[in-house]
Amino acid sequence: MDDALTLLRREFEGTEGSFLLCLRGEGLVWDRAAFSRLGQAMRSACEQYEDRDDLPRWMAEGFYETSHCVAEWTSHPNFPRPEPVQYYQDCLERLRDLADWFFRGWHAYQEPHTWRDL
């Protein structure tokens, strides 16, 4: 898990070679492999923090920003979005779902356990 958190921190800080830096940098590149690594690291964090009430600020800010900003950054008509379009849309939905899971403690595809979880 430490590797996933290290990768997540590097992504959220926009370090060299990160998916998020590639989106915002001069290249404007959607790196599929880097997106996959980011998604896996986010999923690992969701699993680790699922039952905890204490969320590290850097992680919470990163989940929020990523789930909102990737769609915004890539919305320009000249941004070279990955093909097929459905893949791109699924990726944006995945980021929103992961953030929702991180903040709520359960993911959208689980059945709520109590009325409070609705």
TrEMBL record:
It comes from the Bacteria. This is Uncharacterized protein.
